[in-house]
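User: Watch each token:
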Amino acid sequence: MKLVAVSAGLSTPSSTRLLADRLTDTVRDELADQGHKADVDVIELRALAVAIANNLVTGFPPPQLAAAIEAVTSADGLVTVTPVFSASYSGLFKSFFDLIDPGALTGKTVLIGATGGTPRHSLVLEHALRPLFTYLRTVVLPTGVYAASEDWGSGSDAHTEGLPARIRRAGREMASILVARATDPLPEDDLALSKKKLSDLRFD
């Protein structure tokens, strides 16, 4: 299986990349426990920022950006993590996905994640990230993972799950869906037809 993580962290190192790594490692471990091997590719949008801006203006992606887009559209599963700016995903994160054809991700399994300085931004998963990937017709996992600064190194209590527990739960969900699709895949003709039907839908 091919697993691609998209990290929109701006610093090096960044908590966004750290969360992306933790999530992909967990999915890979869960898949291994079920007898499946996953190849992981991490795309750092920070390194593609200039190329993304140029593509938005010219309409043509340079080779490195084209390769990143191809990796995302051909992946079996996506792990997407963005830092929070002004209570939403970063502009870099959104700009990258603006470059991908809306139908290219149809039916793809997506795990959403975000990082921020305060727990107040945790709803970004539901009011920004989930609608974005629903619009792109992906299958967004029930569990999204938000990590505030204080979550790193914290454990759970009687009322809330700690960050490691949320990461494990999301990883199990993604691995279960990927394994189910691998063992009982939709025939190519049916998949193509499903994509066509979805692309023909209008939401007026």
Summary: The first strand starts at residue 2 and ends at 7. Confidence is low (pLDDT under 50) at residues 191-195. The beta strands are 2-7, 39-44, 77-85, 88-89, 109-116, 139-140, 145-148. Residues 163-183 form the longest helix (21 residues).
